[in-house]
Amino acid sequence: MTKILAVDDERDILMLIANALKKENYEVDCKMSADEIDWETLHTYDLILLDIMMPGMDGITLCGKIRDQVDCPILFLTAKAMENDVENGFDAGADDYIKKPFSVVELRARIAAHLRRQNREVHSSYNRDGVCFYLNKKEVWYQDKQVAFTGSEYAICELLSKNHGQVYSREQIYDAISGFDGESEPAAITEHIKNIRRKFNDLGISPVETVWGIGYRWK
């Protein structure tokens, strides 16, 4: 059974999440703070939902600590949608965020999309201009060094590299990697691209470029 961890200091939100996801046959563990998390069991979760504004350890700090231990999708549930919050969240290792108030339909669809992508079975690899993609492991390597991408960052790189030369708008990238046709979050893609470029730049390469006014492509 798919297992989900939800951390939010609002009991009503946790009840909403639990009731909505249990109807989809997900097992849901609800916690009201970082102090309640059993760190020994983090690896057993298939997806994690985090609120940003919580007493004690905030969601962004918590996300960073969790990301050091797991590679499952991490989604923020937050009423805050300012650019700095989005940027800090993705820097900490988040894959996506859903703005409160959210509908049950959106919550289920977004979670299902991330789980589908996480569980998609692929069995091949390819090389794009020296950048090696191992699809079965969802890993990217360059000159014997693995690039530490999150799940969403990897998905963007795979999409662009497989279709090198083709320009994708932020909305097209979002739909392609999430499989969800509801309200898109262009800021999410922008921040992922920034992180992708920073990680490639650290290796001395820049395969992802901006086509101004249109979107992004793999050179």
Query: What is the assigned CATH homologous superfamily of the largest domain?
Result: Response regulator
Q: How many distinct beta strands?
A: 11
| Helix and strand composition category | alpha/beta
Total helices: the number is 7
CATH topology of the largest domain: the name is Rossmann fold
Report the C-alpha radius of gyration, rounded. Answer: 17 Å
- Distance N to C terminus: 41 Å
Shape: globular
- What is the second-level CATH architecture of the largest domain? 3-Layer(aba) Sandwich
What summary fits the major beta sheet?
Answer: 5 strands, parallel
Give the H and E element order: EHEEHEHEHEEEEHHHEE
Mean pLDDT: 87
Q: From the structure provided, what is the oligomeric state, counting identical versus distinct chains?
A: single chain
Tally of separate domains = 2
Strand order in space, largest sheet = 2-1-3-4-5
Tell me about this structure.
There is one protein chain. The protein has 219 residues and is an alpha/beta fold. It has two domains: 3-119, Rossmann fold; 125-218, Winged helix-like DNA-binding domain superfamily/Winged helix DNA-binding domain (Arc Repressor Mutant, subunit A, Orthogonal Bundle). The chain has seven helices and eleven strands. The chain has helices at residues 11-22, 59-67, 83-91, 104-119, 151-162, 170-178, 186-201, and strands at residues 3-7, 27-31, 47-51, 74-78, 96-99, 125-128, 131-134, 139-142, 145-147, 208-211, 215-218. The strands form three sheets. A five-stranded parallel sheet has the order 2-1-3-4-5, sandwiched between helices. It has a four-stranded antiparallel sheet with strand order 6-7-8-9, with helices on one face. The longest helix is centred in the middle third of the chain and has 16 residues, at 104-119. The mean pLDDT is 87.
